[in-house]
Amino acid sequence: MSKSIKIGLTGGIASGKSTVSDCFKKIGTQIIDADVISHEVAEPNGSAFNEILSSFGSDILDENGLIDRKKMRAIIFDDSAKKKTLEEIIHPKVKDQMFMLINQSNDHYLIVSVPLLAETGMNQIMDRTLLIDCSENTQIKRLMDRDKITLNEAKSILANQASRSDRQKIADDLIVNEKNVTLKELEKKVLKLHEYYSKQ
Prior knowledge:
This protein is an alpha/beta fold.
């Protein structure tokens, strides 16, 4: 078993997890990212591809034979049974891959980025939880700008996630990333945490 200290990185959608993750990566921290792994397992040579195909049919493929994420999102968005089916295929495979990478690590600490840390209960296996936090208004604004969606669509995406207060309850460390926070300020906060985690 890896002796590395596991820092669970989480935050609501459009809170800035990737930006913070990149700041850690820049200073040489190993990042294990659940989102990246879930993309990999759903690729044609990935461990979940055939299972997803047999559950959802070939209509979900794009013209290159890849899973069309937009179509997939539309299918599961209002259908909790289909969402559960997809999660039951993907989550265990992502978890296995994450544990394999954690166990192989010799770093003093590593960042394990899991957007649904609170929802999946994976915070219980982390040594610390780092929350990237911002107001729901900021999330909605960023989501609408980033994904070119309507206010209602942004609100319903947020309604499908753990609440802000649920995430705050599990946090040991906090980076507030409101819209007035600059990249320079974020990098400073990350450096401070890096120094702290390196001494644990």
